[in-house]
Specification:
The chain is an alpha/beta fold. The structure holds zinc ion.
């Protein structure tokens, strides 16, 4: 088996994940557009601010007409439970409703097929993991930082690298930017945008985005793009002698040859591996 590379032979991926569908997301979306950063917003579509009501509270959601702010290049909108109920404290039918009703509302607003999610309160158990998979969800993020730049072993129990306020984040960011990794690395930052307002630290996230922006060694991607790319790379099949690789997926996948050159395998293609 060859090592996986990210698209175009890169070894680093950067992504953001912000929860709750808050009004302050608009400011982060504008920063992401300015610095060409991609990411994911997890929304509870059953909890919105009434149309016409000014955002005045500390944790204001978007009103329905503001949801169009998410409809931009490089932004994924994902499930966060239609009423933001704790997935571990509700019955199976209620859980299915929380997931599917949110998925359906997002899909009808954004004309898409939703495959991503984040756990409300970060809470999950075996039943919620199984139910998400049955509902067509490919990854679901928890709130427990793993302080790691490795790709997750289990995308339905995805642990972020760190929250934006985490004191360990600056060191992880420097490591991510400066190291020449052997294996693919992902820096995954999560949070809620009202926290920037509460803490008066919008400059913190802008500084991070400025630092990573424009780096040619980083793949900027939505959560689902990294997840589905990794799942595709794990689906490659090798010949018995390891001299040939077959790509059964619909994604183009890049691998690292022993001489460190990149090998690109197109969907449906079988490629010789020159050792
Ligand atoms: Zn939440």
């Amino acid at each position: 088996m060859l090592k996986t590379l990210f698209p175009n032979g890169l070894k680093k991926a950067f992504t953001l994940s912000y929860d709750d569908g808050c009004y302050d997301d608009i400011r982060l979306l504008d920063l992401m557009s300015r610095y060409k950063i991609k990411g994911t917003f997890n929304i509870s579509s059953g909890i919105t601010r009434p149309e016409g009501q000014e955002p005045c509270g500390p944790w204001e959601r978007m009103c329905p007409s503001e949801l169009e702010n998410y409809a931009r290049e490089g932004v994924e909108v994902a499930v966060h439970g239609v009423r933001h109920r704790d997935f571990t404290k509700i019955s199976e039918p209620e859980l299915i409703y929380e997931i599917m009703s949110d998925k359906q509302a997002i899909e009808s607003t954004f004309k898409t097929v939703v495959r991503g999610a984040a756990y409300p309160y970060g809470s999950f158990n075996d039943l919620s993991v199984k139910t998400l998979a049955k509902c067509g969800i490919k990854y679901c993020r928890t709130v427990w930082s793993d302080y790691s730049l490795e790709l997750p072993a289990d995308w339905l129990r995805l642990r972020p690298t760190a929250h934006h306020n985490d004191p360990k984040l600056p060191e992880l960011l420097e490591k991510f930017l400066n190291e020449q990794p052997e294996n693919p690395r992902m820096l995954y930052i999560w949070g809620h945008t009202p926290e920037f307002r509460r803490d008066g630290n919008w400059d913190l996230i802008e500084d991070i985005l400025k630092k990573v922006s424009g780096r040619e060694d980083i793949w900027f991607a939505e959560n689902i793009e990294i997840c589905e790319y990794d799942l595709a790379a794990r689906s490659l099949e090798y010949s018995a002698d390891g001299k040939r690789v077959y790509n059964p997926t619909a994604k183009r996948v890049w691998l690292e040859l022993p001489d460190k050159k990149a090998l690109e395998v197109s969907p449906g293609e079988t490629k010789e591996i020159s050792l």
